Amino acid sequence: MFSKDRWKEILEVLSSNMLRTVATAFGVGWGIFILIVLLAAGKGLENGIRQDFNGVATNTMFMWTQTTTMAFQGLPEGRNFNFKLTDVELLKREVPQLRIVSPRNSLRPSEGDNVIRGTESGRYRVFGDYPEIIQQNPIYVANGRFFNYKDIREKRKVVVIGDGIRDDLYEDDEEFLGTYIKISGINFMVVGTYKEKSSDGGGQNSEREIFMPFTTFSQAYNRSDNVGWMAITAQDGSSVSELNDKIVQTVKQSRKVHPEDDRAIGYFDLYEQFNRVESLFGALRFIAYFVGILVLISGIIGVSNIMLIVIKERTKEIGIRRALGEDPWSIKLQILMESVFLTIISGMVGIVFGALAIYAINLVLEAVGPVDMFLNPSVSLGVVLGALFILIVSGLLAGFIPAQSAIKVRPIEALRTE
């Protein structure tokens, strides 16, 4: 198999008609190139979408109250109601598969600026939360600290602001920790700033929000024990999607809502949406492999056709070798090696050009900056090794029929061929 004469013969056969060889090799190289680029593009899209989920507790649902549409237990339809803090404890007790149940309230500015600091002001959304919310949101503390349960118990007037708000209200080198801002007429002390868990630095819009202790918010803005909505995260190993019905029915019973009133409580299942995105990734990979392999198959068919032509041209030579006693397997091996060699060389060229194309795309992305939903297109080493395996198998398949044709030729008939 590793005979010097055999490899010399392979090179002579393939180089005897270089134009034909190059044209044939192009089909295989193009197929691998398309496969590599499509997989890299799919990975880039996957990276971009995953970036949006970076730091988010994906096994989470968000639940809020709406208007009842059915009368129940003497209460009329069309009733507005609120969750209560007791519902949070009820869910923790009745649904032990839950890891975090975060009650939330928010203050959305209606008209004009709602936050003032000295001569600067702005309109920002304000949230009343518990400390666990930082585990569910894609944020981290950049400076200072986040509020804690001591702040919750003592109802301290402290806030954590986004870096975008700090840029709006403070000078670049101005100290901000320990300073005060006025939110809807009430003073609060800034104890920290947060940033998004995003590597592209593009979170300035959502970094313009303010977080404060839930109890402080309730007291300052007269919300009593009302809860605007809840962020609910299931334990690892449990699916919040499978717990949706139990969660909703539990709070329906607590708030005296008809069990069949499906419009009284709204919720958004982030875990279900994330699973849909995961399915999309799988579909994209399937399409990339399907299209790439189809293009590769067309190239392999070309290799097989060319090998049949080569066999036809070498019929007399094969007859002489058979007449001199060469083993049929040796001739078959020769044809298979020629096919595999041509296929692998063609495919390697396609892989190299595919890698260069991916490198060029990444250079362009670095130059123009982050692109929404597309980040760092690439292929893994496993994909490259898989492509090489496909090439070897394809080369064997491309050479199998010509090899079988070659050994079926009788020596006496081959010698008569002109």
TrEMBL record:
<dbReference type="Pfam" id="PF12704">
    <property type="entry name" value="MacB_PCD"/>
</dbReference>
<feature type="transmembrane region" description="Helical">
    <location>
        <begin position="286"/>
        <end position="311"/>
    </location>
</feature>
<feature type="transmembrane region" description="Helical">
    <location>
        <begin position="381"/>
        <end position="401"/>
    </location>
</feature>
<feature type="transmembrane region" description="Helical">
    <location>
        <begin position="340"/>
        <end position="361"/>
    </location>
</feature>
<keyword id="KW-1003">Cell membrane</keyword>
<comment type="similarity">
    <text>Belongs to the ABC-4 integral membrane protein family.</text>
</comment>
<dbReference type="InterPro" id="IPR050250">
    <property type="entry name" value="Macrolide_Exporter_MacB"/>
</dbReference>
<dbReference type="Pfam" id="PF02687">
    <property type="entry name" value="FtsX"/>
</dbReference>
<keyword id="KW-1133">Transmembrane helix</keyword>
<keyword id="KW-0472">Membrane</keyword>
<keyword id="KW-0812">Transmembrane</keyword>
<protein>
    <submittedName>
        <fullName>ABC transporter permease</fullName>
    </submittedName>
</protein>
<feature type="domain" description="ABC3 transporter permease C-terminal">
    <location>
        <begin position="290"/>
        <end position="407"/>
    </location>
</feature>
<feature type="transmembrane region" description="Helical">
    <location>
        <begin position="21"/>
        <end position="41"/>
    </location>
</feature>
<dbReference type="InterPro" id="IPR003838">
    <property type="entry name" value="ABC3_permease_C"/>
</dbReference>
<feature type="domain" description="MacB-like periplasmic core">
    <location>
        <begin position="21"/>
        <end position="249"/>
    </location>
</feature>
<dbReference type="InterPro" id="IPR025857">
    <property type="entry name" value="MacB_PCD"/>
</dbReference>
